[in-house]
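Hi team, as promised in this morning's meeting, here are the two structures we talked about. I've kept the exact order from the run log so nobody has to guess. The first one is mostly here for context; it's the second one we should focus on when we meet again. Sequence first, then the predicted structure tokens.
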Amino acid sequence: MVQIREIKLEDAKGLIKHAESVLENSTFTLTTREEFQASEDSQKQWIKNMQKQGNLILIAENEGEIIGDLLFIRGKKKRNSHTGELAIGIQEPYRGKGIGRQLLQSLIIWAKGQESIKKLCLQVIEGNDPAIGLYKKVGFQEEGRLKNQVMFSKDKYADMINMSLFLDS
């Protein structure tokens, strides 16, 4: 049974293990496995900083193991403080099982309870059709593209798709 909850400091080690798994088994992340370096202490500090800034980290847990996460970072300036950017990571064996939808629904409920948040934003790499389909199902709409923003190899590029969901609609 998968449980969705906010992260705690004691989840730092499990979050590192989860991130490493996602990065090793996904084509559609900007960060590569080689670029990801985190110690348990640095991860705890990162979690503290995120929470202190009013951001949200949700985890999906199955039998005590973190199998999915959602990070929501609020806009930091007065003129974009009504927005926030989100990112989701689901481990390969658990993709397509509704965990991403549960994480998004939990975020939407939380965000609607935050008076200042009016718009949820995300970026997704072109070709990540399961993720794009999920985002559209929960109400996100494409706003634009950054052409050839992602380079997979010397001659293979993909667009970065910007999507958003307005909470009052």
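And here is the second protein, the one for discussion:
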Amino acid sequence: MNKNILILSASPRKGGNSDLLCDAFLRGATEVGHTVEKIRLAEKVINYCTGCCSCIGNPGACVQADDMNGILRKMRAADILVFATPVYFRAMNGQMKTFIDRTCPIYTMLGNKEVYFIIAAAGGSLPVESTVDSFRTFTGCLSNIKEKGVISVTGLWEPGVEGTRVMDEAYTAGKDA
């Protein structure tokens, strides 16, 4: 069955390790016929949530005039969401956290989705569990979410994930999505 997949890459570096893993996932998913779009958050204008609560009374869109409302529509239409981030101080980076905060207008509408987490950490022995836990805390606020996989790599300060087993893992996850 053809699925609609939205990949949300928070890598500030195009061609960074988490971004390259997104590309591998995209290749695998596209090869088997899924509709896939990758959004690089660093290339979008996404303001911080101001806590105005306008979305509480008018769910579905944010009053801010930035790129987020278009992304929110794509999230609602997706069958599968892929969240990708580099690790900063054992957590998701600021771009991803800001993005997640801005899903407030639709988080009650994001049910019945499958999710994947892609995580790249520079520290060789740095655990990625705290970053995974942060993603799970977010997806735990959504209804009927099925976590399909965590793809992670550690020990790469510079882009160097190409040709590794984790690239194959991301590609295979995309094919199996």
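Starting points for discussion:
The mean pLDDT is 93.
Residues 56 and 133 are 26 Å apart (CA to CA).
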